[in-house]
Input
Amino acid sequence: EVQLVESGGGLVQPGGSLRLSCATSGFTFSGHSMNWVRQAPGKGLEWVSSIISGYIYYGDAMKGRFTISRDNANNSLSLHMNSLRIEDTAVYYCARGVTGYDSWGQGTLVSVS
Amino acid sequence: EMVMTQSPVTLSVSPGEGATLSCRASQSVSSNLAWYQQKPGQPPRLLIYGASTRATDIPARFTGSGSGTDFTLTISSLQSEDFAVYYCQQYNSWPRTFGQGTKVEIK
Output
């Protein structure tokens, strides 16, 4: 069974930093592209970042502040977030895929206040 | 940035009836479009990719169609578990973008 489990969320002050992790199992992690998607409270989905075959992409609001990385040896995905803003408050999901995201974690809540 | 616009914002439907959800892209995304379903407190679930291909274990009552800029998700005979929010997403260009969602509620 494919599983993605996020961790690392919490309460942080504006300007602070946080590192999110996504532990995966049940599939060959190194063979899949991975993504972060966020959802502010009561709002829609917002794509954050993707890592695809070594190429990395970020949403405009995240460029220069967020860093995505992966550890294929440990089947994990990370998101380092710096200079956090109040508007970064959201549930952050990791998701697998390129042509549609076919597996998602339950998300981890980041609150910037 | 590719803007994805979904309509309507809310759709009120009686169980057993059909529903048609629309998604329009500001530029052509070819067939690089996915549909997701999200229920409260849950992550999204992939329904459709490639504009019309059902994802694994998705019931046949969900049908995706369209290409270019105009797309449709049709749900035939809504079941109780289908009342949720639906999002479209383009993966034709960067940044990836989602529509704002259509809430399908019980009439």
Remarks:
- Residues 7 and 22 of chain B are 5 Å apart (CA to CA).
